[in-house]
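User: I'll paste a sequence; please echo it back and then give the predicted structure.

Assistant: Echoing your sequence first, then the prediction.
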Amino acid sequence: MDVGCGPGRLVGALTSRQIPAMGIDVSREAVRQTRIRGALALRRDVFSTVPGEGTWAYALLADGNLGIGGDPVRLLSRLADVLAPAGQVIAEVAEDGAGLVKGRRQLRVDGRCRLISTGPSSASTRSRRWRRPRACGSSR
């Protein structure tokens, strides 16, 4: 199971190799893109009931998804219930000293543009007002 599968890059690759796989994501658009790749995907929160609970051999956490829910310990505890007794979590993590990225990004979610800031909160980033762009991808 690919937890937080996004556009289905990994679950799609597994499916194309005839490896049974399923992606879950809370985003309609992510699930749609995964299905376009020919892979099984459900719009689901990992903290709710998932099909095959207790039987999955692997749970994939790629692209920073160890932070889903804001509490890695809670997420890993939940995955212990989702996985079979001998199941394994495969998590992508950054090497020590990789640092944090701070800035602002445009993100399209379910067809809507969102402007987000990334990195640690500080007084300067909290007090700064971001202007919403007219459209995702437009330059300022």
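The two ends are 40 Å apart (CA to CA). Confidence is low (pLDDT under 50) at residues 116-134.
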